[in-house]
Protein backbone atom coordinates (compact mmCIF):
# COMPACT_ATOMS: atom_id res chain seq x y z
CA UNK A 1 0.00 0.00 0.00
CA UNK A 2 1.44 3.40 -0.97
CA UNK A 3 1.12 6.62 0.99
CA UNK A 4 -1.62 7.84 -1.29
CA UNK A 5 -3.59 4.61 -0.96
CA UNK A 6 -3.15 4.65 2.83
CA UNK A 7 -4.23 8.26 2.97
CA UNK A 8 -7.24 7.58 0.75
CA UNK A 9 -8.23 4.62 2.90
CA UNK A 10 -8.20 6.84 5.99
CA UNK A 11 -10.03 9.64 4.24
CA UNK A 12 -7.10 12.03 3.94
CA UNK A 13 -5.19 13.42 1.00
CA UNK A 14 -1.64 12.70 -0.06
CA UNK A 15 -0.56 16.14 1.15
CA UNK A 16 -1.88 15.41 4.63
CA UNK A 17 0.01 12.10 4.62
CA UNK A 18 3.23 13.91 3.66
CA UNK A 19 2.62 16.51 6.38
CA UNK A 20 2.11 13.73 8.94
CA UNK A 21 5.31 12.01 7.81
CA UNK A 22 7.19 15.33 8.00
CA UNK A 23 5.77 15.99 11.47
CA UNK A 24 6.89 12.60 12.73
CA UNK A 25 10.37 13.17 11.27
CA UNK A 26 10.56 16.54 13.04
CA UNK A 27 9.43 14.91 16.28
CA UNK A 28 12.21 12.35 16.04
CA UNK A 29 14.74 15.14 15.33
CA UNK A 30 13.43 17.02 18.37
CA UNK A 31 13.95 13.87 20.43
CA UNK A 32 17.55 13.63 19.25
CA UNK A 33 18.10 17.30 20.15
CA UNK A 34 16.51 16.64 23.51
CA UNK A 35 18.79 13.64 23.99
CA UNK A 36 21.78 15.80 23.08
CA UNK A 37 20.66 18.39 25.63
CA UNK A 38 20.30 15.66 28.25
CA UNK A 39 23.84 14.46 27.49
CA UNK A 40 25.16 18.03 27.68
CA UNK A 41 23.27 18.46 30.97
CA UNK A 42 24.90 15.32 32.34
CA UNK A 43 28.29 16.68 31.26
CA UNK A 44 27.57 19.95 33.05
CA UNK A 45 26.64 18.04 36.22
CA UNK A 46 29.82 15.97 35.97
CA UNK A 47 31.87 19.13 35.42
CA UNK A 48 30.26 20.84 38.40
CA UNK A 49 30.92 17.76 40.54
CA UNK A 50 34.54 17.75 39.40
CA UNK A 51 34.92 21.43 40.33
CA UNK A 52 33.37 20.74 43.73
CA UNK A 53 35.74 17.85 44.39
CA UNK A 54 38.79 19.91 43.40
CA UNK A 55 37.62 22.78 45.59
CA UNK A 56 37.37 20.51 48.61
CA UNK A 57 40.76 18.93 47.88
CA UNK A 58 42.31 22.40 47.74
CA UNK A 59 40.42 23.53 50.84
CA UNK A 60 41.61 20.54 52.86
CA UNK A 61 45.18 21.01 51.63
CA UNK A 62 45.22 24.69 52.63
CA UNK A 63 43.70 23.93 56.04
CA UNK A 64 46.34 21.21 56.47
CA UNK A 65 49.08 23.74 55.71
CA UNK A 66 47.63 26.15 58.28
CA UNK A 67 47.53 23.33 60.84
CA UNK A 68 51.13 22.43 60.03
CA UNK A 69 52.18 26.06 60.44
CA UNK A 70 50.53 26.28 63.86
CA UNK A 71 51.93 22.95 65.03
CA UNK A 72 55.44 23.94 63.87
CA UNK A 73 55.16 27.19 65.85
CA UNK A 74 54.06 25.26 68.94
CA UNK A 75 56.98 22.87 68.44
CA UNK A 76 59.35 25.83 68.19
CA UNK A 77 57.94 27.23 71.42
CA UNK A 78 58.44 23.93 73.26
CA UNK A 79 61.94 23.44 71.83
CA UNK A 80 63.05 27.00 72.57
CA UNK A 81 61.68 26.75 76.12
CA UNK A 82 63.70 23.59 76.74
CA UNK A 83 66.81 25.09 75.12
CA UNK A 84 66.49 28.31 77.13
CA UNK A 85 66.08 26.30 80.32
CA UNK A 86 69.29 24.39 79.61
CA UNK A 87 71.38 27.37 78.42
CA UNK A 88 70.00 30.17 80.56
CA UNK A 89 67.37 30.95 83.19
CA UNK A 90 64.50 30.35 80.74
CA UNK A 91 62.86 32.40 78.03
CA UNK A 92 63.12 36.16 78.04
CA UNK A 93 59.99 38.29 77.84
CA UNK A 94 60.69 39.32 74.24
CA UNK A 95 61.37 35.66 73.41
CA UNK A 96 57.93 34.71 74.72
CA UNK A 97 56.37 37.51 72.65
CA UNK A 98 58.02 36.26 69.45
CA UNK A 99 56.91 32.69 70.15
CA UNK A 100 53.32 33.76 70.86
CA UNK A 101 53.35 35.78 67.63
CA UNK A 102 54.59 32.69 65.79
CA UNK A 103 51.59 30.70 67.05
CA UNK A 104 49.01 33.47 66.72
CA UNK A 105 49.80 34.71 63.21
CA UNK A 106 48.66 31.57 61.31
CA UNK A 107 45.43 31.34 63.31
CA UNK A 108 44.68 35.04 62.85
CA UNK A 109 45.50 34.90 59.13
CA UNK A 110 43.07 32.01 58.65
CA UNK A 111 40.38 33.79 60.64
CA UNK A 112 40.83 37.04 58.72
CA UNK A 113 40.81 35.31 55.33
CA UNK A 114 37.60 33.45 56.23
CA UNK A 115 35.94 36.64 57.51
CA UNK A 116 36.87 38.57 54.37
CA UNK A 117 35.53 35.68 52.28
CA UNK A 118 32.05 35.69 53.85
CA UNK A 119 29.45 35.98 51.08
CA UNK A 120 31.97 35.45 48.28
CA UNK A 121 32.31 32.55 45.85
CA UNK A 122 34.07 29.39 46.95
CA UNK A 123 37.01 29.99 44.65
CA UNK A 124 37.49 33.49 46.07
CA UNK A 125 37.47 32.10 49.61
CA UNK A 126 40.10 29.55 48.66
CA UNK A 127 42.29 32.21 47.05
CA UNK A 128 41.97 34.41 50.13
CA UNK A 129 43.06 31.48 52.30
CA UNK A 130 46.07 30.86 50.04
CA UNK A 131 46.97 34.57 50.20
CA UNK A 132 46.77 34.44 54.01
CA UNK A 133 48.99 31.36 54.04
CA UNK A 134 51.51 33.21 51.89
CA UNK A 135 51.56 36.11 54.36
CA UNK A 136 52.08 33.63 57.21
CA UNK A 137 55.00 31.99 55.40
CA UNK A 138 56.66 35.35 54.74
CA UNK A 139 56.26 36.48 58.36
CA UNK A 140 57.58 33.20 59.73
CA UNK A 141 60.61 33.30 57.44
CA UNK A 142 61.27 36.91 58.43
CA UNK A 143 61.06 36.03 62.13
CA UNK A 144 63.36 33.06 61.63
CA UNK A 145 66.04 35.07 59.80
CA UNK A 146 65.77 38.52 61.36
CA UNK A 147 65.22 37.74 65.04
CA UNK A 148 68.50 36.59 66.65
CA UNK A 149 68.32 33.41 68.69
CA UNK A 150 69.90 35.16 71.66
CA UNK A 151 66.78 37.36 72.10
CA UNK A 152 64.91 34.26 73.23
CA UNK A 153 67.29 33.56 76.12
CA UNK A 154 66.69 35.17 79.52
Tag the structure with descriptive keywords.
154 residues; mainly alpha; 4 helices; elongated
Q: How many structural units, i.e. domains?
A: 1
Number of strands: 0
Uncertain stretches: 24-34
State the helix count.
4
Kindly name the structural category: mainly alpha
Mean pLDDT: 80
Helix content: over 70%
Taken from the alpha-carbon principal axes, the silhouette is elongated
Give the strand content. under 5%
Integer-rounded radius of gyration: 35 Å
- Main beta sheet, described? none
Q: Gap between N and C termini, in Å?
A: 110 Å
What series of H and E elements makes up the topology?
HHHH
Question: What's the layout of helices and strands?
Answer:
Blueprint: H1 3-9, H2 14-87, H3 93-116, H4 122-146
Helix pairs in contact: 1-2, 2-3, 2-4, 3-4
Short structural description:
This protein is mainly alpha-helical and 154 residues long.
Overview of this structure, please?
The chain is mostly helical. Helix 2 runs parallel beside helix 4.
Amino acid sequence: MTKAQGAAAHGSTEQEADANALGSALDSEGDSELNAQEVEGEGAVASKLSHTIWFWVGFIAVIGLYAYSISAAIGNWIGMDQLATILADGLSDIGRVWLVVGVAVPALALLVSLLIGVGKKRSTKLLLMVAGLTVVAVLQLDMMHLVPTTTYLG
